[in-house]
Design brief:
Order of helices and strands: EHHEEHEHHEHEHEEHH
Shape: globular
Number of strands: 8
Radius of gyration: 17 Å
Number of helices: 9
Distance between the termini: 10 Å
Helix content: 40-55%
């Protein structure tokens, strides 16, 4: 994982940005940021990809369906066997929970379209984040392999929105987007901080690493 700016805690990080607490919380959730022992961290795409693959493996092992509500404790105990700490799993499910659900609770549902999009972005960043393009057909195939069958219809290049570019017709690679798909992006656009300034603060939170 990468420490956010100066490796300070969540509150100190919030004080760096001229936004409301609600806007900050949504952006914090968008990047799956978390606080451990008083320090703020942003899990890397490789870590997030491992978390998601562990979730899929756990559901397969236990016969669970992501189309239905999940018991967090049961899921956490299973993925922990694959060295995925519960606090990272919690950050991921908070990012992907269904619209309108009460913030973290033991029984939760994931939003299919949001989850598929996030998984695609995480996979693409993990595979091409250092600037190397990959075959688009292979990428989509790998993406769909880590999704429930009923969700695979959502796995299209267009679902990645501003987070991809195609150097050629048959290749694709990740690009950073200050306002990528998520609740925080919508909140910023509708809140006090808009336009270039909104993009600037969101990028700072997302990109400041130690």
């Amino acid at each position: 994982m990468s420490a956010l700016k100066d490796a300070r805690g969540r509150r100190a990080t919030f004080e760096d940005f001229p936004v409301s607490l609600q806007e900050f919380d949504q952006a914090w959730n968008d990047i799956c940021a978390l606080e451990v022992n008083g320090r703020a961290f942003r899990p890397s795409s490789a870590v997030l990809w491992k978390v998601w693959r562990s979730v899929i493996a756990a559901c397969t092992l236990k016969g669970l369906s992501l189309d239905q509500a999940l018991d967090f404790s049961s899921l956490a105990s299973t993925v922990e066997e694959e060295d995925v700490p519960p606090f990272i799993l919690k950050a991921v499910v908070e990012r992907l929970r269904a619209e309108g659900e009460v913030p973290f609770r033991e029984c939760l549902s994931l939003d299919p379209a949001r989850s598929v999009q996030w998984v695609g972005i995480v996979l693409l960043e993990a595979r091409t984040g250092h600037g190397s393009a990959i075959n688009v057909g292979d990428f989509i195939s790998d993406w769909k392999d880590q999704l429930p069958e009923s969700w695979r219809q959502y796995a299209t290049i267009k679902a990645l929105k501003e987070n991809f570019t195609q150097p050629s017709d048959d290749t694709v690679m990740f690009i950073e987007s200050g306002l990528d798909a998520g609740k925080g992006a919508s909140s910023v656009a509708a809140g006090k901080v808009t336009g270039p300034q909104a993009r600037k603060w969101h990028e700072r939170l997302k990109n400041t690493r130690r």
